[in-house]
């Protein structure tokens, strides 16, 4: 699937990669593929990774995310995109962060 | 409210996504979890229950980042296979002393070395190895102390080669020994 991201690029969310790599290792994402797509299309912000300039992180906060029976009223979803190839690398629901993300690239 | 959390790591599974350069580590089969991002590339996966349990780690851009890690910190990391099989992290809080202690190894005769304000390294009396650390005045300063500690370790990890020795170097190296970095690298080979 190819997705028009808010900051311009066309991003690939490969079905096989989604199932065999991302969901296989982060199973809480299994029923939230639509949220990942939404985060790419209308993020709250897009950031560079703090240590890797070739990775962009799309951030969007969602309500009502259910994980293992716990329902979270506000849960940020972070979607990682590798610029070389513009494909979704991984994603996760983030309950907390100790150090901030890298530079914000969108909105500028 | 005193507590003790003990985390065993003897069921680690490794899956390296070569295309995405992501190393997934799980303790048992992967299960639904939320993450705490130490930095955006280093994710700690926790089960949502009480108390939360570490069920894995995710390293985004693992190989790419490994190339940036200070080589002297990882040079000749001992394998210590037998010790690593029993690796555990035990976190305990005493409300009597308002102190959090975190140990990588079993409790043993030790002494404390000041690392920073309210932060002390625990060193084995026998050989001086770092086996953990403690944070004092935890209710008041614990979060800030933890952030300072983690920041020091991350700064040590990515400091330019040839950087002058820093108190965080020894702690960072001790931590790397206990997360079995050679095995992580082998999984991503």
What does this structure look like?
The complex is a heterodimer of chains A (108) and B (189). With 108 residues, chain A is an alpha+beta fold. Helices cover 19% and strands 43% of the residues of chain A. A five-stranded antiparallel sheet of chain A has the order 8-7-4-3-9. Chain A has a two-stranded antiparallel sheet with strand order 1-2. The relative contact order of chain A is 0.24. The mean pLDDT of chain A is 95. Chain B contains six helices and eleven strands. In chain B, strand 5 (42-46) and strand 6 form a beta hairpin. The N and C termini of chain B lie far apart (45 Å). In chain B, helix 4 (138-157) packs across helix 5. Strand 8 (87-97) of chain A pairs parallel with strand 4 of chain B.
Q: Key terms for this structure?
A:
heterodimer; A: 108 residues; alpha+beta; five-stranded antiparallel sheet; two-stranded antiparallel ribbon; 2 helices; 43% strand; B: 189 residues; six-stranded antiparallel sheet; 6 helices; 28% helix; globular
What's the helix and strand layout?
The complex is a heterodimer of chains A (108) and B (189).
Chain A: E1 2-4, E2 10-12, H1 15-25, H2 33-41, E3 45-48, E4 55-62, E5 65-67, E6 70-72, E7 75-82, E8 87-97, E9 104-106
Antiparallel strand pairs in A: 1-2, 3-4, 3-9, 4-7, 5-6, 7-8
Chain B: E1 3-8, E2 12-17, E3 22-27, E4 34-39, E5 42-46, E6 54-60, H1 62-66, H2 71-74, H3 81-85, E7 88-94, E8 99-103, E9 110-116, E10 119-124, E11 130-135, H4 138-157, H5 167-178, H6 181-187
